[in-house]
Amino acid sequence: MLLIRNGFVIDPKSQTAEKLDVLIHNGRILKIGKRLWERMKRKPEKTIHADGLIVAPGLVDIHVHFRDPGLTYKEDIESGASAAAAGGFTSVVMMANTKPPVDSNETLQYVLEQGKKCGIHVYSCACVTKEMKGLELTDLESLSEHGAAGFTDDGVPVMDEALLKSCFEIASKLGKPVSLHEENPEWIKENGINAGDAAKKMGLFGSQREAEISMVARDIKIAAETSVKLNLQHISTKEAVELIREAKKSNSNLHAEAAPHHFSLTEEAVTAFGTLAKMNPPLRTEEDRKAVIEGIKDGTIDIIATDHAPHSKEEKDRSFADAPSGITGLETALPLGLTKLVQEEQMPLIDLLARMTCSPAELYDLNAGYLAEGGPADLVIFSEKEAFELKASYSKSKNSPFFGVPMHGQVCYTICAGEIVFDSRRMKRS
């Protein structure tokens, strides 16, 4: 048995927020209550003294790229899972744009079997279209039967409206979510940078905001004609936030996510960090950043997801136009949320945790993201205001502008299925 003693337990699903003990046995939460240690008939094998610490459900990230199969020099499932555990995540959903992509049962089974070897819960989406070419649907029914958590061609948009509607109709019957990358290439000259002041300084044109706005408007309309659970990924523009806010009034199956970099940085970061701030969709203006934050605060954007996208140093050292887009994010997501949203924007901590636990878990129908007696013993224990600075990483890749940036929020322990998979005092990043 494992006893977590005197922690401040916050569970957004039950709206619990009080000082409690948590007793864990055989991978489940056996008991939650006050001063449990006084009533225990036998001493637990291990006790975590959580005085002054927050005890919350293990974080859930529904948007990670672990690059396995095919691109494991960037990341593999084991290293990605280790980075997730260090960031307080106990459940992750991998995207399908691997090499080969997850468009067959064989590839899906490979990634799921590799995931079982890790210390956390690893799920995977399957592709919407074969080879992610946008021309023909995959066998969605068979992929669902073989364990696909949902469907996405993340990395590229699905441009064929009729094909996308067919996907929505099938996914709705299967009860699986569809997550979409919302960037129309017709509005993009160079990807990874906003068509604004920073691009002009670098002699580039960049990605116009209409790339996202047009796709969000289109897909909201198509989704309204079905009952699909639709997730609009990594929202970056104020107009898209407002479109989603209005659409949610009549469509409860519509969801949206924001990445920590989009509520933390603006396009000016590109002039400071170069390719380490190159991402799709790009960082935009301060007005957009503020709109994303307001969307998170009022629930228009109900999910925070990292879009953890590792790349090698050699790739990111290329010219801006030639370097790949994306940054790592699993180990900095919670500290950025605590720093940028809770401390700077006065967002209630319980609301931040909801966007990172129960909301993403419910979209993907995962048994995760909550604390309850009899429920899974997946927890994160962290110090809300303790100084944190990422100096090394469990990820194979180090492509992040947040290395060495002072933040608040140190993950102390991550517990998955009752086992301690991260202990900040004993485990060292490289």
Protein described:
The chain has 430 residues and is of the alpha/beta class. The chain has 14 helices and 16 strands. It has helices spanning 77-86, 105-115, 140-145, 161-174, 197-201, 210-224, 238-247, 260-264, 268-273, 286-298, 313-316, 333-343, 349-356, 358-363, and strands at 2-11, 16-25, 28-33, 46-49, 54-57, 59-64, 89-94, 121-124, 151-152, 178-180, 230-232, 254-258, 303-304, 379-388, 407-416, 419-423. Helix 6 packs parallel to helix 7 and helix 7 (238-247) runs parallel beside helix 10. The chain starts with a strand and ends in a 7-residue tail after the last strand. The model has no long low-confidence stretch (mean pLDDT 97).
Defining key terms:
430 residues; alpha/beta; Urease, subunit C, domain 1; TIM Barrel; 2 domains; eight-stranded mixed β-sheet; 14 helices; 16 strands
Oligomer: single chain
- The poorly predicted ranges are none
Report the average pLDDT across residues: 97
User: Could you tell me how far the N terminus lies from the C terminus, measured between alpha carbons in angstroms?
Assistant: 31 Å
The total count of helices amounts to: 14
Radius of gyration: 21 Å
Please report which band the strand proportion falls in: under 5%, 5-15%, 15-25%, 25-35%, 35-45% or over 45%: 15-25%
Q: Biggest sheet, in brief?
A: 8 strands, mixed
- Class of secondary structure makeup: alpha/beta
Shape: globular
The CATH superfamily of the largest domain appears as Metal-dependent hydrolases
Question: How many domain regions?
Answer: 2
The CATH architecture name of the largest domain reads: Alpha-Beta Barrel
Residue share in helix = 25-40%
CATH topology of the largest domain: TIM Barrel
Series of H and E elements: EEEEEEHEHEHEHEHHEHEHHHEHHHHEEE
